[in-house]
Amino acid sequence: MKNTILELKDIVKAFPGVLALNRLKFDLKSGEVHAICGENGAGKSTLMKVVCGVHKPDQGEMYVNGVARSFSSPLEAYRNGVSIIFQETSLFEEMTVLDNIFLGHEIMKSKAGLKIIDYAAMRKKATEIFEKLNTKMDLNARIKTLGMAQKQMVEIAKALTFDANIIIFDEPTASLTQREVDALFDIINKLKQEGRGIVYISHRLEEIFQICDRVTVIRDGQYISTRNVADTNKDELVADMVGRAMTNYYPKAQTEIGEEIFRVEHYYDDGFLKDINFHVRKGEIVGFAGLAGCGRTELMQSICGFTGKAAGKVFLNGEEIEIKNYNDAKNRGIVYVSEDRGKYGLIVDMSIEQNISLPQLQNFANNMSIIDTEKEAELAGKYLKEFEIKAPDTEFLVTNLSGGNQQKVSVSKALALNPTLLILDEPTRGVDVNAKAEIHKIISELTKKNLSIIMISSELPELLGMCDRIYVMKDGSIAGCFDREGCTQEKILSIALD
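The structure assignment produced for this chain is given below.
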């Protein structure tokens, strides 16, 4: 019989002006994977930060292995068998894999009356852990040289050095390829078989049905339900998450596709992109599919002038154009929205209105270079209302918005430039199912205004639901193209994997 190894009762946590958790309950058993679902801002990550000592609860009780506990820091939680692996890893980039794994709990030995670090013992233990995880890892490699999947493996190894029996994964697959996701799931299953309890936080419902045993839904900081995964379905979970049934996840507008507006011919870039040819018509949504590393993002960034080196022809409205840098692209009406909104899309410590106006700040300055803040607020207010961005006003800091609302600001920032062609790179990455539907609606409505859109997405249902045509890329070239009618995931994958 499985034991309850983590139990939360009536957890309350408030921040200034926000009741983040309202009498929440949750339990985790040994040898199970228990998912936590909810919209952005529902309280999932806050709850887990309470568990691992980042936040102290205002009320409520927590029991670890039947003992009442309250941790004052993640390190204390680690030492008591509770670890959390955040979406954004907390590793030191300039340090080695080995040093990161044992940071703060190095294995020591005595030599000549002194306590020194026992690197041989640490190396032996780390090697054993990675062998157990069936993962090859260079212990001397610096973290900055690793991919996201490898960094997550380091975090898992770190947790296992503390002999953690409760491991929390917070959106672990957001930056992983499908192969990396499969490898992670293999490791999670191994940890589960060893009797460890896994908390799995994710917006990707298909993953929950693939890897989890139970799922708890929270909404607006409150407990809604706990279900056996085998006994529920996507529609039930979504209804619990958003408070209503959802029937249309991809609200594609029926628009009349116009004449060709954008064309790329025989495009090459630095030996990776090879003989790229594609076109986009007015009011059309054109999707780009393919496995991670196939060249989708590289292609769009190259076209927009980020690399500054390319060969081939680019046409806009029938005229051949030259784009040397991103300013050239913007001035021509070609606007790119990065998949990494936190790093490249937004300045999170600035307000909504400051973010939206930033790319065209010169348009808000008078002759004395003083910014007209009323004009800024007016523009931002338009998008705040139109896109239903959940914020009290335009002066609200972006860092305090949910992921879905941050993405809306990122798209607003691009639209404020009045683009002719909008390039969206993973537009719904890291946002919940309701926010996805809202963003899809925004994208669809834009095509009614004759805006042309290129959409890069790793989620094939999203491309199939939203796009008029889909190009499939492989190894830096276009391997095929499908019209909306008759296209399937199987057809796309058959080309991408061939």
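Interim note for the steering committee: The CA atoms of residues 265 and 313 lie 5 Å apart. The chain has two domains: 4-242, 260-496.
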